[in-house]
Amino acid sequence: MTTITEYxxxxxxxxxxxxxxxxxYRAVVGALRAESPEGTFTLTxxxxxxxxxxxxxxxxxxxxxxxxxxxxxxxxxxxxxRRLIANLGGDAxxx
Length: 95
Fold this sequence. Notes:
Blueprint: H1 9-13, H2 17-34, H3 45-61, H4 71-87
């Protein structure tokens, strides 16, 4: 198992969910691509347009991300995602 840098609960809880989920996504997809034929995982024009719409919606939802979630629980979730990133060879440090 790989090691990851330890951060305080406050530092982890201050992170936007999108930062670690995006890194986790890239680590997972990167690992899949490494084991899959060339071109298996690419976005079509419609897929790219959908990704752009999702990014816009994420900006609106960002303020609601922490609603009802104690900082300790949010930090634990961020650490789980960071562990997944590190396990797949990605950089799990905070941006």
